[in-house]
What we know:
Number of helices: 20
Helix content: 40-55%
CATH superfamily of the largest domain: NAD(P)-binding Rossmann-like Domain
Low-confidence stretches: none
Number of domains: 2
Number of strands: 14
Distance between the termini: 72 Å
Largest sheet: 6 strands, parallel
CATH architecture of the largest domain: 3-Layer(aba) Sandwich
Strand order of the largest sheet: 3-2-1-4-5-6
Bound molecules: uridine-5'-diphosphate-glucuronic acid
Radius of gyration: 24 Å
CATH topology of the largest domain: Rossmann fold
Strand content: 5-15%
CATH class of the largest domain: Alpha Beta
Mean pLDDT: 95
Amino acid sequence: MNIVVIGTGYVGLVSGTCFAEMGFNVTCVDKIEDKINKLKENIIPIYEPGLEEMVARNVTAGRITFTTDLAAALKDADIVSIAVGTPTRKLDGYADLTYVFDAAKEIATALDHYAVIVTKSTVPAGTGYKIREIIQRTNPSLEFDIASNPEFLREGNAITDFMEPDRVVCGTESTRAREHMAKLYAPLAKAGAEIIHTDIISSELIKYAANTFLATKVSFINEMADLCEKVGGNITDVAYGMGTDQRIGNKFLQPGPGYGGSCFPKDTTAMVNIGERALSPITIVDAVVKVNRARPHRMVAKIIDAAGGDIEGKKIAFLGLTFKPNTDDVRDSIAILVADELARSGATVVAYDPKGMDEAKEVIGQTVTYATDTDEALQDADVMVLATEWSEFCALSPDTLRSKLKQPIVVDLRNAYDPAAMQQAGFDYISIGRAPVFAYSGEQAALARQTKTA
Ligand code: UGA
């Protein structure tokens, strides 16, 4: 089968490449000429482990091509997958479907034979039907079917998530389209993946339900962590204790500075809006959004407190700017918000991230100073903040930290270090939902902290 994928963002590029890897002929289309030219030279616009090699392999095998010419790409297409962005609409928080509808119009204008038009972008319930209307209006004689095929890949783990999915969801009400989709995913089904066939609206809802439920888990554990800090529990034990109940599961119970990225913030906001429009409010997700929005400021307060109540003129070594490790994506990254607020509160923030430096510069510019490596960020800092759990940061030993930092104060927003080891090494160590430890105990600690504050 010939597959056309429109949009070469995360979802489009990864799924197009993986379809090629599965043996299909794939054409990836994008309007941005520069991006297509770079892809033709195997320059991948995003950092995603394993993607560059997989693109190169499939280009060499002649299974994947890149173009800006949609009409030419559609010539022999059997399946056309729309994988363009659906950002948050500034006005009301609803998903902005402009790119999706524009793509539908362009497909309708250029397509001259039967194909299945699939939505891979995350879209509100009912969008598939709107796409059908647009296509019918634009090209009344065209024979086509529509399907919804949401994608569940995570950045940083995208290829494995695509090739070894927990499930594949295909929503369509047409038998012919269903057969096409079954054929498309036959290689994954053969390898053991469950293919779930539903109607279009259910499929569209599954994507939002999955993402907002995961975001709910994150906000829930973050509030539990806050409670632990107040009443004296240990969030690691609480998360483990509840997560071992198989009905709950232990994934997505890692407390932190709040969820970020290009999906959860956008999809939770859209879900609230979808519920409001349907007069069926999703109040839980509304609360999840509120908890997450309050989180960056809370993290800043924690850091200021750890620094002795005042960060004016202090050097903060800030490790991690991407919204999570193994990606260069800083979209809606809480780390960025925290770094920016600290700098605006008077601290000298010296930041380092293994992959997201250029991307961060585009968002916060020179508000913070950028170090060339971890050592440079740490050198003579008054406080270190671990904001994103890149493995090279998690592997830093207390001895290394002690030898670089001016003051032994570490605020760990990802619970990457062992409190006992940090205390033994003489640190004030503040993490999330776990009792803080101080270099000195009892009166000595109080005295040391008072001196620092003074
Ligand atoms: C998320 C979903 O996990 C994917 O299934 C989905 O396909 C994707 O959105 C999408 O809709 O395209 P992603 O945004 O790549 O994937 O990142 P996640 O790994 O889900 O992390 C999201 C945020 O939650 C990160 O900021 C992460 O640090 C945070 N998080 C995650 C926690 O704070 N604690 C956890 O236990 C897990």
